[in-house]
Amino acid sequence: MILMRYSKTLGAEFTAHLDLMRGIGRTLARAKIEVKYSQGYHPHLLIFMSAPLGLGIKSYSEYCLIDTDESAEDFKAKFNKVTRKGIECIGAWETQKKIGVASDIVKAKYLIKGIGEFDERDILNSTEFIIKDKNGNDKNVRDLIYEVKRVDGDVVCVLGFGNGLRVEKFAEKLVERYGGGDLDIIKTEGLTMDGKPFESVLQGGE
After folding, report:
1. Separation of alpha carbons 91 and 116, rounded Å
2. Would you tell me the crossing angle of helices 72-82 and 17-30 to the nearest 10 degrees?
3. I need a surface site. Which of 20, 166, 174, 202 has the fewest CB within 10 A?
């Protein structure tokens, strides 16, 4: 199997998750990368995607687990030769075990542009950070905010991922509190619980 880390930029960030998965499948076919199929009445390609981001959020840290016998080096070269604009394989690692790309990435690091000035201690020293959940109810997500700091006028933060805190809601709340606009959100790392890049769960290298 191959664990692939890929970027989603240059307009690809507006591709819906299912369309992205289908697109990756087509790219693998064009690259002549043989992918194994599931067993049963409705066989499908064994491709496992990390949890989706909101539309419009750029990323340099998306992950996909692909059941193939390709070497990591050949996979990366073949994939990038035929991939669409905005989708690029940044890293590829061989693994013998199935990794929870959709469940085990529990934190993410983001760069957020377009937020007005504020003191990060206003958030970090507080016990509450209230956003609206998908049903419109107030939800305190302070325990899912692990790091917030200003870097050259932008916001760098580490937030919980896939567990009730969407980065776009966090950014919108910052604008509501501190002003700003024309938001640009970039996911720079998908992280394990101990704050390491997700590919660190593997022993091998690229």
Report:
1. 34
2. 110
3. 202
